[in-house]
Write the structure tokens for this entry.
Amino acid sequence: MTEAAADRPGLWRGLVDDPKHGPLPALLMVLTVTTGVVDAVSILSLGRVFVANMTGNVVFVGLALAGSKGFSLAASLSALGGFLLGALGGGWAIRRLDLNRAQLLRNGVAFELGCLVIALVVAGAVGTPISSDAADAIAAALAIALGIQNAVVRQLAVPDLTTTVLTMTLTGFAADIKTARREVLARRILAVLAMFAGAAIGALIVIRVNASAALGLACFLFAVTLSAISASARLAADWQE
């Protein structure tokens, strides 16, 4: 084994104790699962709207404007507006506040959790099925959270872990399958499986229980992530800078 190969972290260490990114890969995997859960709620309960994947949401706006049935223009526009507002706020905080990577993720997840709690309270108050006005408000709150998340994750710049879209992850997996290290390919596969698992679990909960229960799971996952990154932020480490 060469010295360079010996210095490379294995898959597990690369997720929880990466020399360059610390525990960020593992925490971003959890956020990827949460994205799947949240988009399952939005697609199944809020009028076929994405709150994380704005590419799909722009398409849904076009379909709604063209008169296609089953798509809510108001919900899609609420999600687009909320996402842009969240990304704008996240970008402002990144520029104005002198935060290291751990503090940035901690603060971002804290704000996201607040948005999800608001969405959960509204969903619980209106019950099932969710009315169109409440769906628009929930979509906006969830999209604000995911807009913040995208701004934060973009600044963290952990390869292959955007947490909300998989297009480039899948492209990288297929295009580099003959040249990329096994750990890199495995991380890309795990990112896809994380999103898949979140969507499947979220859909099952929405179908068999209700949207509030699925949002409760998303809040729990955010709370776990917040606890983990808060603990990491207390200990100085090179990966935080």
Observations:
- The CA atoms of residues 16 and 32 lie 15 Å apart.
- The first helix runs from residue 3 to 7.
